[in-house]
């Protein structure tokens, strides 16, 4: 990987793209520390030191914003509104026929869906910024903090804060698209990668500074490396279903007769099931913080559901990951559509009749691969948390399975793109 980056920097065109990408990432990180107008920055730092962010749902958003949420910066919402909007638009394809028709129209339809995603991102940014500012003003963002983070809570000040955070989300969306167009890799994925990776040094330092810190630090690093090896192995694995295209005459020319395959990844749903499961399980704990501490349901949630080491929490976490893995795969991969396209262009799977039998065979393969993929996701999501619990280390640090899957997946995809660009400019490897 390092050799690929070295050769890329020796290529002028790729060097410009890499420097442009690095510049955008630096700009994104700088924006994460610029406070929103109306926020008392010293008080925010004091509250962070006193409370360390106890809410799991806000902690998840803070992770994807690179720590900007708890800083109440102009980039406080991070990339989460765009991620949520993208997922919602994908889910609406199942519900709204117009969205599915746009998806099948090709480039023009995809451009229209992208425009809908942008509009929805801004709407979600307004909603989320209002929620974050409300929780900060009411003291729920930093519970137990002795100083106010928003001294002036007038309507004008709060409105400016909402507008600023929403504009920050729009700017992040634009920066991600700039990376995709003029830089290297997928812009949104790289910004998420940057946000998560930025939290690692602080988390590692917190482990090393405690009791028996260096022993725990070494064990945590060892577990992370093993999980990374597992993630790389599974993410690179795929089931290749062979496809044969029949020969056909068009005028005086013979077309077809080629062999190819359908690559099916073991983990087709990516990290989406883990994010969904984490977000949903964090909601009861968030609601319990707004309730009466002496209420029976608040006590039950705080004791049996909210803690990450609770048996019920772990069981529901695994079941929800498996459910969302099947649900999201069913949305993104349609066996009937693939079988129809193969039949239209004269393709068939050897030994399987075209049409309905092909769709049933693809559904059979997808069901079994998704079973293995969902179990893999559940294991990767639980291993870091269980190890941190066993070592008596705080579990609100960014070493969850979702973080490792995202970081490794984005890293692999970026290196692939760099290698492909290098192969387009250097042909020695093909001639040797």
Automatic annotation (TrEMBL):
Stated name of the protein: Protein translocase subunit SecY
Role: The central subunit of the protein translocation channel SecYEG. Consists of two halves formed by TMs 1-5 and 6-10. These two domains form a lateral gate at the front which open onto the bilayer between TMs 2 and 7, and are clamped together by SecE at the back. The channel is closed by both a pore ring composed of hydrophobic SecY resides and a short helix (helix 2A) on the extracellular side of the membrane which forms a plug. The plug probably moves laterally to allow the channel to open. The ring and the pore may move independently.
Classification via Pfam families: SecY
Membrane topology: Multi-pass membrane protein
Family listed: Belongs to the SecY/SEC61-alpha family.
GO biological process: intracellular protein transmembrane transport; protein targeting; protein transport by the Sec complex
One GO CC term, this protein: plasma membrane
Subunit structure: Component of the Sec protein translocase complex. Heterotrimer consisting of SecY, SecE and SecG subunits. The heterotrimers can form oligomers, although 1 heterotrimer is thought to be able to translocate proteins. Interacts with the ribosome. Interacts with SecDF, and other proteins may be involved. Interacts with SecA.
Organism ancestry: Bacteria, Bacillati, Actinomycetota, Actinomycetes, Micrococcales
The entry's keywords: Cell membrane, Membrane, Protein transport, Translocation, Transmembrane, Transmembrane helix, Transport
InterPro entries the record matches: SecY (IPR026593), SecY/SEC61-alpha (IPR002208), SecY_CS (IPR030659), SecY_dom_sf (IPR023201)
Major localization listed first in the record, in broad terms: membrane
Annotated organism of origin: Paraoerskovia marina
Spans through the membrane: 18-34, 68-95, 116-135, 155-176, 188-208, 214-234, 271-290, 310-333, 374-391, 397-415
Annotated Gene3D superfamilies: SecY subunit domain (1.10.3370.10)
HAMAP family: SecY
Compartments reported by the entry: Cell membrane; Membrane
């Amino acid at each position: 990987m390092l050799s690929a980056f070295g050769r890329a920097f020796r290529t002028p065109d790729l060097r410009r793209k890499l420097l442009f990408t690095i510049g955008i990432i630096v700009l994104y990180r700088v924006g994460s520390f610029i406070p929103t107008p109306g926020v008392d920055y010293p008080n925010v730092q004091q509250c962070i030191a006193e409370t360390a962010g106890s809410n799991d749902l806000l902690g998840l958003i803070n992770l994807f914003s690179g720590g900007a949420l708890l800083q109440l910066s102009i980039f406080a919402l991070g990339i989460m509104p765009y991620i949520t909007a993208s997922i919602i638009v994908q889910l609406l394809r199942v519900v709204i026929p117009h969205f599915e028709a746009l998806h099948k129209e090709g480039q023009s339809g995809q451009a229209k869906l992208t425009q809908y995603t942008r509009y929805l991102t801004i709407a979600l940014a307004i909603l989320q910024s209002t929620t974050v500012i409300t929780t900060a003003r009411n003291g729920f963002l930093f519970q137990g903090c002795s100083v106010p983070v928003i001294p002036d809570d007038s309507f004008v000040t709060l409105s400016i804060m909402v507008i600023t955070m929403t504009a920050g989300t729009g700017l992040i969306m634009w920066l991600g698209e700039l990376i995709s167009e003029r830089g290297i890799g997928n812009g949104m994925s790289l910004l998420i990668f940057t946000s998560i990776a930025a939290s690692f040094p602080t988390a590692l330092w917190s482990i090393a500074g405690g009791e028996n810190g260096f022993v725990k630090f070494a064990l945590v690093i060892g577990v992370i490396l093993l999980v990374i090896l597992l993630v790389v192995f599974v993410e690179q694995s795929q089931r290749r279903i062979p496809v044969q295209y029949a020969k056909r005459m068009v005028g005086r020319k013979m077309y077809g007769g080629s062999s190819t395959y359908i690559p099916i990844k073991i983990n087709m749903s990516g990290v989406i099931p883990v994010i969904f499961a984490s977000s949903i399980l964090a909601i009861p704990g968030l609601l319990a913080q707004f309730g009466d501490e002496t209420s029976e349901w608040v006590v039950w949630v705080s004791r049996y559901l909210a803690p990450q080491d609770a048996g019920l929490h772990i069981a529901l976490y695994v079941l929800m990951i498996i459910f969302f893995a099947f649900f999201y795969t069913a949305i993104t991969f349609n066996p009937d559509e693939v079988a129809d396209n193969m039949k239209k262009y004269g393709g068939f799977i050897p030994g399987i009749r075209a049409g309905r039998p092909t769709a049933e065979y693809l559904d059979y393969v997808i069901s079994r691969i998704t079973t293995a993929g969902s179990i893999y996701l559940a294991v990767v999501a639980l291993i870091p948390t269980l190890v941190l619990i066993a070592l008596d280390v705080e579990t609100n640090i960014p070493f969850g399975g979702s973080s490792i899957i995202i970081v490794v997946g984005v890293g692999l995809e970026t290196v692939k793109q760099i290698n492909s660009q290098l192969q387009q400019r250097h042909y020695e490897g093909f001639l040797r």
